[in-house]
Amino acid sequence: MSEHEFKIPFYARFTLILIGISAFSYAMYIAQDIIIPIVFATIIAILLNPVVNYLVRKRWNRMIAIALAVFLAVCLVSGVLYLVSTQLAMFSETFPLLREKFGTVYKEMVQWTSEKFSIRQSKINLWMNDSQSEAINEFAIGEKISEVGRMLVIAMLLPVYLVMILYYKPLLLEFIQRLFHSQHHIAVGEILRNSKKIIQTYLAGIFFEIIIIAVMNSAGLLLLGIEYAIILGIIGAILNTIPYIGGVIAAGLSMAIAFVTKDTMIYPLLVLGLYLLIQFIDNNYIIPKIVSSRVQLNALTSIVVVLLGGALWGIPGMFLSIPLTAIVKVVFDHIEPLKPWGFLLGNIVPTVARNPFSRR
């Protein structure tokens, strides 16, 4: 290169990077119906790969081993869905009673507000009706039905993608190897191995975390005498996989049921205390010991990527955001110019004494 080599100014590079990220995000949003099933299938395939390898070592035909592993995974998920659906059926049978109780509570709240703040009940009811109409319009029932339809399509395509990805794994790995020059093969192999370990430990840990949290939630709600304790415990455990946000939603849902089905405010407060205790146990014992510390993302990064994932891909994006960001961090950590970004995503906070910008 000549000594008069042209260098792009920082602001121009930054602008190009922003344009590239925007174009990539837009492409991911437009093609989400195609990409989401493939991403889910790839992550689950990494989790099932040890099962397939074990069966192949036992001299099973590779295609039969793959089919058996996928079949067992489908049976496991179907069993969980059946359990949840039976509990939801019990919940739907008593829905009229819940609606009646909600109506009674609503009237009492309107009356209390009217007396406390000297506002006519008719004005409060009119304001509530307008708020409900706006909420229904913003909820966009048609869009939600469409989203449910997309999730059903994903569920149907997943087994097919799983079988194909597991079967063509050697082809895909060879393709990745040929993309890079031979001098980078060691680094690429290390990235792939670390990414595989992250996915396997993270998903296996999440699976056991869901079971433990579901048992704790259900047992605690049963001891408090809260109705629909099992379904609330399972839903709460599933929501808990969404970092920081899911736990709040799960606690709010159980508190609402306790508020409607009980005659005193002590039960919603007891439910809140129960969920705070479970969250403390989860954050300080279950996650560090079971989910593993391999997904070393700081809390700020986790919250931001969960919100971005939800904005980009909806509910599936919220579930995929953490493992995908963990893989991105692995890539950043192995590429010299990107190591500062990998450090930014991590959970290692330097002390003030090591900060060269701090005042002495």
- What distance separates the N and C termini? 43 Å
Average pLDDT reading: 80
Main sheet, how many strands, which sense, barrel? none
Catalogue the unreliable spans: 138-142
Strand content: under 5%
What integer value in Å does the Rg equal?
25 Å
Structural class: mainly alpha
What is the global morphology?
globular
> What proportion of the residues is helical, as a percent range?
over 70%
SS summary, helix count: 14
Helix-strand pattern: HHHHHHHHHHHHHH
Notes on the protein architecture:
The chain is mostly helical and 360 residues long. It is 82% helix and 0% strand. The chain is built from 14 helices and no strands. 20% of the residues are buried.
List the SSEs and their pairings:
Blueprint lengths: L9 H21 L1 H26 L4 H32 L1 H23 L3 H19 L1 H27 L1 H11 L5 H40 L4 H11 L5 H17 L4 H26 L7 H15 L1 H19 L5 H7 L15
Helix pairs in contact: 2-3, 2-6, 2-8, 3-6, 3-9, 8-9, 8-11, 8-13, 9-10, 10-11, 12-13, 13-14
Feature tags:
360 residues; mainly alpha; single chain
Briefly say what this structure is.
With 360 residues, the chain is mainly alpha-helical. The chain has helices spanning 10-30, 32-57, 62-93, 95-117, 121-139, 141-167, 169-179, 185-224, 229-239, 245-261, 266-291, 299-313, 315-333, 339-345. The protein is 82% helix and 0% strand.
